[in-house]
Design goal:
It contains 4 helices and no strands. With 135 residues, the chain is mostly helical. The protein has a single domain, classed as Up-down Bundle (Four Helix Bundle (Hemerythrin (Met), subunit A)), CATH 1.20.120. The longest helix is centred in the last third of the chain and has 32 residues.
Length: 135
């Protein structure tokens, strides 16, 4: 079984990651900031958006791929994958625009956390069901 859904979702996340990376690199080049953020508040936010993506997305994509390999219903895989992508886009827009509270940042973070928790719950459920069928 080829994990086609998680492959597409991961590919879309890679595109988003590259967009976030390009925003940091471009800002650094325009403002001549080599290392760190140089006290630039906008660059600090862009670096955090990029870093936050790198902190959450790899584990989420791993979970999505493992769930697909474990034959979880494809509708759930699509829901998880799209929810993760929407959450990450909302978070990037929200945090990218303001270091404080924003709808995008809060909603994106919540959607990411809920998606991770739901995927973990389905992974545990799939393990338990599989163990019961073997016993």
């Amino acid at each position: 079984m080829t994990p086609r859904i998680s492959l597409l979702i991961a590919s879309l996340h890679v595109v988003l990651y590259l967009v976030l990376t390009f925003r940091v690199v471009l800002h650094r080049n325009v403002h001549k900031v080599g290392v760190g953020t140089g006290g630039d508040a906008a660059l600090t936010r862009k670096v955090r958006v990029h870093g936050n993506f790198g902190e959450y997305v790899p584990l989420a994509l791993l979970m999505l791929a493992l769930l697909e390999l474990a034959a979880i219903d494809t509708t759930l895989l699509w829901i998880f994958g799209i929810a993760l992508l929407v959450g990450r886009v909302l978070h990037a827009i929200g945090l990218g625009g303001s270091a404080g509270y924003s709808f995008g940042r809060a909603t994106g973070a919540l959607l990411t956390f809920v998606t991770l928790l739901a995927m973990a719950a389905f992974g545990i459920w799939r393990f338990v069901i599989g163990a019961m069928l073997v016993a």
